[in-house]
């Protein structure tokens, strides 16, 4: 079994343990899988490791779903991701550092960080914005959203 498939199973087990509401569980799956797919595409386009990007994306909001709150979820998520990756021997130490850095920084949308951190931030923004085009783009995500549209050859939208 590939690492990403194994990780999806582990994440699925965690989600089912933590979320009892069917609609919230479906939403969690949709977000994690959506961000994972976006991260894979963005990483490939930018010449980054798409497997690590996909893994980081599958774990990026795990703490929010497990703890039921988004309070400090990025930092807590990095710790939980490290624990899950180590316990299940899914990555080498350097890979874990890269994945956990991306998770740790993914909520800092106004700051520029390492390339893999940027992949995850942009994948998260891509899913937030393209998943429901009727919703307004959050202020903290607007610059990234416009840059992503340009990077992917989509017309830049005016507010």
TrEMBL record:
Chain ranges of the HD domain: 28-129
Query: Which parts of the chain are coiled coil?
Result: none
SUPFAM superfamilies on file = HD-domain/PDEase-like
Q: Which InterPro entries match?
A: HD/PDEase_dom, HD_domain
The superkingdom of the source organism is Bacteria
Tell me the protein's name.
HD domain-containing protein
């Amino acid at each position: 079994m590939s690492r990403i498939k194994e990780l999806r199973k582990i994440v699925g087990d965690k989600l089912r343990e933590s979320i009892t509401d069917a609609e919230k569980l479906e939403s969690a799956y949709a977000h994690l899988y959506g961000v994972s797919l976006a991260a894979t595409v963005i990483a490939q386009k930018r010449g980054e490791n798409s497997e690590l990007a996909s893994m980081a994306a599958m774990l990026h909001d795990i703490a929010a779903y497990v703890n039921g709150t988004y309070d400090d979820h990025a930092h807590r998520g990095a710790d939980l991701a490290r624990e899950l990756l180590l316990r299940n021997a899914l990555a080498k130490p350097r890979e874990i550092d890269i994945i956990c850095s991306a998770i740790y920084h993914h909520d800092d949308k106004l700051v520029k960080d390492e390339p893999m951190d940027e992949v995850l931030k942009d994948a998260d923004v891509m899913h937030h914005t393209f998943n429901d085009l009727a919703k307004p783009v959050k202020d903290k995500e607007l610059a990234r959203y416009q840059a992503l549209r340009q990077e992917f050859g989509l017309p830049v939208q005016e507010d």
